[in-house]
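#lab-general

N.A. 3:47 PM
ok so I finally got the sequence cleaned up, no stray characters, all 1012 residues accounted for. can someone with queue access submit it? mine expired

B.Y. 3:52 PM
send it over

N.A. 3:53 PM
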Amino acid sequence: MLGPVETRSVSPVFVGRTDELGTLNDALARAAAAEPQALLLGGEAGVGKTRLVEEFATAAARLTAVVAVGGCVEIGADGLPFAPFSTALRALRDALPEEFAAAAAGQEEELARLLPDLGEAGAGRHDEQGMARLFELTARLLERVAAEHTVVLVLEDLHWADASTRHLLAYLFRTLRAGRLLVLATYRSDDIHRRHPLRPLLAELDRLRTVRRIELARFTREEACRQIAGILAAEPDPAQVDEIYERSDGNAFFIEELAVAAAEGNCTGLTDSLRDLLLVRVEALPESAQRVARIVAEGGSTVEYRLIAAVAQLTEDDLIEALRAAVGANLLTATRAGDGYRFRHSLVREAVADDLLPGERSRLNRRYAEALEADPALVPADARVMRLASYWYHAHDAAKALPAVLAAAVVARRRHAYTEQLGLLERAMELWDSAPQEVRSALRPVDYTEVYPPCGCDPATTPLRYLDLMAEAAVAGRFGGERERALKITKRALRLLEEEPDPLRAAWFWVQRSRLVQALARGDGWRELGTAQDLVRGLPPSEVHAEVLAVAANWSMQRRPGPEALAAAERAVEYAGMVGARETELHARLTLGGLTVESGDPEAGLAQMRQVLRETRAEGMHHVAGRAYVNLPSALQSVGRDREAVPLLREGIEFCRGYGLLDSGAWAWGNLSEALYSLGQWQEAAEAAAHATRVGHSAKPRGAGALRLAHLALACGDLAEAGRQLAAARAWYGTHDPMPQQLLPLARITLGVAAADGRIADARAALLPALDAGFPPGTHRYGWPLLLAAATAEADARTLPAARPGRAEMLDRLSAAGRTLTTGVPLWHAYDQWTRAELLRAEGRDTACTWSPVVAAFECLDRPYDLARVRHRLAGALLAEGGDDERDRAVELLRLAAAVAAHLGARPLADAVARLAQRARLTLTRAARPGPADPAAALGLTSRERDVLGLVAAGRTNRQIAEELFISPKTASVHVSNILSKLGVSGRGEAAAVAHRLGLFTAGPLAADTPG
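B.Y. 4:20 PM
back already:
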């Protein structure tokens, strides 16, 4: 059988691709230097992508890199969820078993969703963050495995990739920051039409500066000539090269096929269709080999030998001879594992599959399905259910396909492949009416629908109903980010419920609709929630009733906090407790705690929230615990207890990272940035805000991070950067769902940028919508900073002619708004005093008596920047009053303010202090005095630098210093450098010697951490 096939159809010479191979090798070198690399390799079918990857992989392996390859699998028109990652991770595990086991330790149950070899996937939690958690764990796994070994991860044929694979690849490309890792993905560019699902991903990745994209061009005539020479093992005739090059248009695969056809004497039989040319090779095979080729073409991109045998129903000898003929003709090739076969090139497979008759195609799929049902061991266990569903669906047998598709949907959900689950459930809806009643009455029960109440008396045994199916699909669409599809299903379900009223199930679907409307930026979702509340009103307590109340209370806490929200949260807690809905109860208690803090009883509310955090951690409810790690510190910050919030936020960030709670982690980073800003640790605050913009899965926590960066830039005097970050925050937040916690800080930064730029009219315009809307109860945390910024802008613009029109009215409105905000804790009482003082300054009526109590109020708080600002104001008032005592006191106040401004990098404040001192002819630098009471102060060390020096003297490394002081190693390094400079020494040992010589740390332990 192999005799006639002696011509080499693959050139032994690797032709061209010098630039592309150079790019790949450069990326490999960067990866080996611990700089992760991400590359996309595109090109039309047959242009030579696989050959280039093989050459690169061989070269990488020679350099001791570990190469793991996975390809997207196509079965009919379906892809297997995460198939390329599963294959590549399996190869990586085989190559580095010990390193892989160590990297996956503790997360095997979750990672088993990608690699079933790790064991049974845990039940885990299914929610909108489930897929993101899996992605985060996968990224950390790869980073850990690649910590000591250079790893090349190759993912082939992205044009066949399922949605889950595309989402995971995008996440890796966005987030990989460590490890000796190179990720290379290939795709067929000529398949990427305008509506192809890969197209948006390519556009997104093009915007990432960390991703390099390589487009593989066709061969030149010279390269084609070299390829033909390699195939023929002889120098080709120039006329023959011209003919082949013209027919192939430089496509490497077509050059190969045409060269082989010419060598076999078929050059006069070349048809007008290259597709027909591909079939010529098949038609030259014996009938049994052609039959086997058709079977393999319909079975998928790779088909197991035993499955081929079961479908072909040939004797073993006849089957082997048929396969030998197909392999010898270079149509089929054995898989890497040696347990199956695939077409050497997908173009040939597609040509053979397209040549099948419709009836022939469905018959082959039926034979595949029957063989797999008879012997499930014919295919790997992790692919069995999905492939059976695909075969029955394409066999057009609704009775068999419906239960198979529903079983596959359960498998997809367990792997967090929610988009694939949704597609399967949509197929089930399509098949529903075609399936016989006896089949529908024997379907599986409801799988996962959150608190939706399944139809029937016993949810564990009652067969799935059509409404239940729609509930599963709505949840899958929401979890998978396919919100538009989920919303359509939800609307259809509600139309069905209009025909057959069912208030409880209708209320559940209205809650889903509310969530989807918010996520799609179609509104704030309150109308839908209101409908749900109307539907459950008067019904007996149930999980749905409790959830409706809990969701409504949380909505109100974020948008309309007040007595009604508090009452809704209390009812939600009561109902959830009555029906045993533990998770809903804990969520509602957390909401109730936050509302209690805002209502003026902080200690009771904080105690409630702390208890929820303890219980959720003890009961393993990680999702609720992640929310508690955001809300509890936020509540502490709302009453001015930022220093108490910081360690809790750091603990929460580690918790969220460990459990893949990306959005909760991003919110925690944003809150940490806000707390560090208040405490005067601005460099660390900027780092935290940057983390928030990177790690979030959803848009809003990223918007919060961008807003923190805008605030920092404004305080540092970088108006251009403040404007850029402000625009980014607005883009992340959107305009569809106005929340006070977003709108008021946005207005404050917008106002601040305009005021700093001298645009008082624009500053007022930014404020007016908030003044018109008023400040609901519970919004004082955001309202006071906004009113203060507005009052300060009016005072700073007092002498500007452009500010005079409308000033009196604006000051009256600001004063009136301040009277509506609570001052129940020292922080907001201090803000009230400060705002009143600025309003008096705006009228030219402020005095030292105005500012002295403001300074006294902030001296009791842990907010160095705010204190420096009001000290500057008091100094100005003292200088205006005149007198030697007043001047001496003003000098001291300005020195303190200048020191803080310099330490923080607050250029506008530093400039304002310098201008005031210059106008008053004051010298702020102290004359040297012998024998200072504090040697550290004499050396110019800030309190933070004193803390760092104490740890240096104790022999701590930068990393140890960072861990002890809750700062980054980079920040610790900067502090050490500043200390060495101020002490005039060249090393840490000399610095320690100076510290001991001066007796800086003989009085006991280090002082508490206070900002410089």
